[in-house]
Amino acid sequence: VTGGRAAHLPYGVVRLPGGPVPAVRDGDRAIDLRALAGAGLLPGGGWAEAPDLGRLLAAGPDVWAEVDAALQALVLDGRLPAGAVHRLADLPPPLLPVTPGDYVDFYSSEHHAATVGRLFRPDDPDPLVPAWRQLPIGYHGRAGSVVASGTDVVRPAGHRPPAAPGGAPDVGPTRELDFELELAFLTGGPPTAPGDVLSAAEAEARIFGVVLLDDWSARDLQRHEYRPLGPFLGKSFLTSVACWVTPLAALEAARVPAPRQDPPPAPHLRAAGGWTLDLTLEVVLRPAGADPADDDGSVVARTSSADVYWTMPQQLVHAASNGAVVRPGDLWATGTISGPEAGTQGCLLEATQGGVRPVRAGAAERTWLEDGDTVVLRGHGPAVGGGRLELAPVAGTVRPARGGASG
Amino acid sequence: VTGGRAAHLPYGVVRLPGGPVPAVRDGDRAIDLRALAGAGLLPGGGWAEAPDLGRLLAAGPDVWAEVDAALQALVLDGRLPAGAVHRLADLPPPLLPVTPGDYVDFYSSEHHAATVGRLFRPDDPDPLVPAWRQLPIGYHGRAGSVVASGTDVVRPAGHRPPAAPGGAPDVGPTRELDFELELAFLTGGPPTAPGDVLSAAEAEARIFGVVLLDDWSARDLQRHEYRPLGPFLGKSFLTSVACWVTPLAALEAARVPAPRQDPPPAPHLRAAGGWTLDLTLEVVLRPAGADPADDDGSVVARTSSADVYWTMPQQLVHAASNGAVVRPGDLWATGTISGPEAGTQGCLLEATQGGVRPVRAGAAERTWLEDGDTVVLRGHGPAVGGGRLELAPVAGTVRPARGGASG
Question: What local confidence, expressed as pLDDT, does residue A47 receive?
């Protein structure tokens, strides 16, 4: 390692005997930030006393930079107190890094939006609505249903479209359960006041770091309910995020110029363009019945975040441009990331052309997810100082429906 | 007062010299619940130590009933310790009763949904989408932008529809600022786990109480952005709620049979029908320049909550029927409540037929809200034991745009 930067140190929350504490992961070890702050080895301010990353996020970018620099030095110099270091294998699974205030899901991958537009609105000559290239289309998801990687995905029930147009709905467990491959960021700094807006620089400074995110979706429920107010129960049952947040500072080497935008967006959005992240993202599917001990699953999609049309700062500038309140711990996701070719599509809706052409996962075929299937999202990119860094994965296993809506 | 029930005692949060405390309002007095709990006069459990109603909501219906009964007895018997009672006029304005976890806005008034459907989709033969009578259509709003009554409404900026179809968007402050007259409820009890569903009885038991809610809307921004994911910046800039929550227990006399539903909904929703609340709701508009000292404003709409198509328990059962997590402090609103006739419509979009026919407010005319206008939502209904009770009002004054999106 050169340039004063240690291995990738993503932030999360681990459970110690005394309760949950903020931590960073260093390979197979977790470093207890509360212990380090208590020993005077990290900047103070009380953020490390919180049971999650909420107060660190609220502390804002100056504190993030100080904490990051102090951690880098401690790890590089081998000066970590033994009591602050734990083997991850000895701890229970990590918790959600922070309970999100609001969760916004954008729709910023052009190939995804165009393909879904064609599938959901086959009679519409323009699969992208006119506003799509003018502003980052998005909606609010259910913050309370955001869970940590590893949480089971209970198959949701609801109203499926009627067999014939105008018929009675068909109520029961979804038949079209899907994953969505997404990258998300967490914001920090003090809450804005109602009516405040953010400049491009202010927005960028509020981005703490990124996580992989799986926005599980029930396509039949979504198709039946989404007009005119957007997705609701088709999405709100569960959204899984990775347990370790990679700080933006660790992704300097992954920055690339953002895609060209035509037509050029309005000035406040144009100012927030510039860079995006080029990360390789993968979806791994391990079908029901496969033994995790000897089947790691099959890669069913591999794509890049580099051609997501709207950048993270643009998404945040847009969302705040009407004076909406931005709070520390808010979660902002790209929407499904897809490329144009087969094998680059980040959800089954696209990969199977609406459930028509199955994809292959080892010996199995899938149009939609089946009970017992496990989906893992992975990501990697160039590390500062050379080599690659891996984003923390996000995984979930589908479990049978438990009741709820019934016909 | 007969039957052992005192005046209406709604719950909120007042600011005392030592900080915010849970309180109830008794006419022009606030009663400090932390002081009463500290003196052993209310059930314990630590909920009164919280700076808002969050822990009282989490404590669930058994505690709510005990607290309510104890308060009723203390007020009826005149046994309140003097130190626990404050004149509201001597205190700063109350705070938001609770920071909502998630905020869901339904679309449950049939007249509203049909009128808006005709205005937004004039070429569609069916203004109500087919799913509308099958399930309570709704979407997630921005919880972070929920504020207490009295907060200023800064005019939001954003992308207005182009002058001609296919043209460049027109970016700047909204020209179509609107109010929305809504009734909302707050839920409590412990958080559900992902995958849990709620029975009709479980859902009903989780409803703590109701508040008036104004879902401020920028119709031009909303019209341009809402396809296909629903309203986002057209709504997310601000949502105002009343400062005092009327517990459901105080509204027993306002219960009426719910509207007949044709076709009958699926069994889990049918079971949650039964009753609804018959409250008279009003919108008062005081135009810019009017002196609050001698102009209380004009009633520009008066309607009833009794014909909202989907009941509160149905809304909650539906939202949880896919296993979504329900948390204490979640906020659930009806959507705009409108009747069919002129003068009964709960937003300007409807009342002005899309900005075409102005409404009159005293000497002024309005198609949309202007800077300086004040909107107050009021409500009243029958009280237990006779007489009427007034819901706490929700008010906001429009202030000029501050920047943000610009063309």
Answer: 98
The full DSSP string for A299-332 is EEEEEESTT-SS-HHHHHHHHHTT-----TT-EE
Q: Answer whether residue B75 shows pLDDT above 80.
A: yes
Q: Which two tokens stand for residue A265?
A: 């967006």
Beta carbons of B404 and A138 less than 8 Å apart: no
Give the pTM: 0.97
Q: Read off the DSSP letter of residue A66.
A: H
Q: Per the residue annotation, which of A8, A111, A112, A224 is the catalytic one?
A: A112
Q: What separation, in Å, do the N-terminal and C-terminal C-alpha atoms of chain A show?
A: 61
pLDDT score of A403 more than 80: no
| Main-chain dihedrals φ then ψ at residue A334, nearest 5 degrees | -70, -20
Q: Is residue B119 classed as helix, strand or coil in its secondary structure?
A: helix
Residue B155 tokens read as 């005019």
pLDDT above 80 for A348? yes
Residues of A in contact with B129 (CB under 8 A): 227-228
When scoring B177, B322, B325, B397 by the number of chain A Cβ atoms within 10 A, the one with the most, hence best to mutate, is B322
Q: In this structure, what token pair is assigned to residue A84?
A: 């602050």
Distant-in-sequence, close-in-space partners of A381: CB < 8 Å, separation ≥ 6: A251, A253, A254, A277, A278, A279, A280, A388, A389, A391
Please compute, for residue A2, the number of CA atoms within 13 A of its CA located in the half-sphere on the CB side. 3
B313's enclosing H/E stretch is helix B312-320
Number of neighbours of residue A20 by Cβ within 10 angstroms: 18
Quick one: which H or E segment has residue B153? strand B153-154
Model pLDDT for residues B21-37, shown as the tens digit of each residue = 999 999 999 999 999 99
Tens of pLDDT, residues A190-230: 999 999 999 999 999 999 999 999 999 999 999 999 989 99
The closest alpha carbon to A148, from A186, A94, A188, A103, belongs to A94
- Band of residue A44 on the pLDDT scale cut at 50, 70, 90: confident
Q: Please check whether residue B168 is in contact with residue A130, taking contact to mean a CB–CB distance below 8 angstroms.
A: no
CA torsion sign, A301 to A306 to A308 to A313? positive
What tokens does A396 get?
Answer: 């979930």
A3 has a pLDDT exceeding 70: no
A-B Cβ pairs (cutoff 8 Å, strict): 244
Phi and psi angles of residue B113, each rounded to the nearest 5 degrees, phi first: -65, -40
Least confident of A322-331, B10-19, B111-120: B111-120
CA pair distance B319, B334, nearest whole angstrom: 13
pLDDT of residue B344: 97
At B3, is the pLDDT very low, low, confident or very high (cuts 50, 70, 90)? very low
B194:A151 CB<8 A: yes
Tokens of B305: 């909550």
What's the angle, vertex CA B244, arms to CA B238 and CA B249, rounded to 5? Answer: 125
State the burial class of residue B164 (Cβ atoms within 10 Å of its Cβ: 0-12, 13-18, 19+). Answer: exposed
The residue with tokens 């909302």 is: B184
- The pLDDT score that the predictor gives to residue B203 is 98
Task: Return the residue matching tokens 């904490």.
Answer: A67
Query: Which of A17-31, A203-217, A293-307 has the least mean pLDDT?
Result: A293-307
* pLDDT over threshold 60, residue B77: yes
- How many Cα atoms are found within 13 Å in the side-chain-facing hemisphere of A45? 15
pLDDT at B142: 98
Distance CA A292, CA A309 (A): 36
- Calpha distance A71→A32 (Å, rounded): 11
Q: Tell whether the model's pLDDT for residue A2 goes beyond 60.
A: no
Catalytic residue numbers of B? 112
B167 touches chain A (CB under 8 A): no
Measure CA A390 to chain center.
14
d(CA A220, CA A364): 23
User: B333, B104 in Cβ contact below 8 A?
Assistant: yes
